[in-house]
Amino acid sequence: MISRLAVSGYRSLRDLRLELGPLNLVTGANGSGKSSLYRALRLLADLAQGRVVASLAAEGGLSSTLWAGPEAFSRGMKTGTVPVQGTVRRQPVGLKLGFASPDYGYAIDLGLPKPSTSAFARDPEIKAESVWTGELLRRASCFAERRGPSVRLRDDRGVWRQAMTDLASADSMMTHCADPRQAPELLLLRERMAAWRFYDHLPTDRNAPSRRPQVGTFTPVLAHDGADLAAALQTIVEIGDRAGLRATLDDAFPGAALAIGGTDGYLEVELRQPGLLRPLKATELSDGTLRYLLLTAALLSPRPPALMILNEPETSLHPDLLAPLARLIGRAAERSQLVVVSHAPALVGALAAQPACRHLSLCKELGETVLPGTEPPTWAWPER
């Protein structure tokens, strides 16, 4: 489980450090930085799959995502006695992302490239990376570090060896130096990050993939777009918590019964409801009913990921479904760490009342996202 998350220089997250628990509820007004926090987590997951540079390019490039304010606020700026203005920089410009758990921690520093005539001169460069044991980066706890193109690894005897000297600036050591024999910890951490699941506005429109029959294959984890919904639900029935699935649906839709139909290997969802003479297929379900089934398939996964992030799961749901959803999320948090971003007061209230929930209520101060009333955890970034 991630116990500490740190983001520096990304959009409104000038220097945000958070402590996380099993269930984390992120709230705040529009523009408070909830989406930036969600995107920062996605960037970390993309990094484990070698897509971080492409992901930043899709956001307009590194220069478009960097914190636009001063490097630090003086006391006068905070009190309003002097205007907010630029100051002499003490650190190089960079976007930093990191997290730590009781076993391993990881951090990356992405910076601006050197001036060049190349057509790709705006691509960000990975300046530094570190992987360490425990929650805080220290010299003694670090066992993998990258500075520029150079990567060093430390073995179990404490001896450093040179792993690479020419790693490309767009490539992470997480994808190019993870090895089951030479660096098994890197491989373990990379696979853990790559398995994180993000569910952001699962499509339920008329042309949504989840409404169409799909070739059924063993599906222990729902796809990000929910295209394999029928197969994911059938997998829960066969190898997962079948009783839990039945109870979850009865909690939301009393008296309803789920069935997975189809022909020639194609599977589709069917939901029988009280008073109807035939089951309704996915093409006939309301947006809210279909979305709840998608969330059910994700949260009851027989192969729960280490981290699951739900961005505004209340979209399209009737208010009567928010209490059952909160109960479902609470049960899922017993098997996976969850981060839930929500605007819905009913869902927020039901989740915040759960003992395991850590409520992160973000707000803006001078354009910077902050978490008031809390002391940020200790954190150290790798040196360039």
Walkthrough of the structure:
With 384 residues, this protein is an alpha+beta fold. Among the domains are: 4-25 and 47-195, no CATH class; 202-285, no CATH class. The chain contains eleven helices and 18 strands. The protein has an eight-stranded antiparallel β-sheet with strand order 2-1-4-5-6-7-8-9, covered by helices on one side. Helix 1 crosses helix 6, helix 7 (229-239) packs across helix 9 and helix 9 runs parallel beside helix 10 (322-332). It starts with a strand and ends in a 14-residue tail after the last strand.
Global outline: globular
**How many E strands?**
18
Percent range for β-strand residues: 25-35%
Largest sheet: 8 strands, antiparallel
Mean pLDDT: 94
What structural class do helix, strand and pairing data support? alpha+beta
Unreliable residue runs: none
How are strands sequenced across the largest beta sheet? Answer: 2-1-4-5-6-7-8-9
Q: For the terminal residues, how far apart are their CA atoms?
A: 27 Å
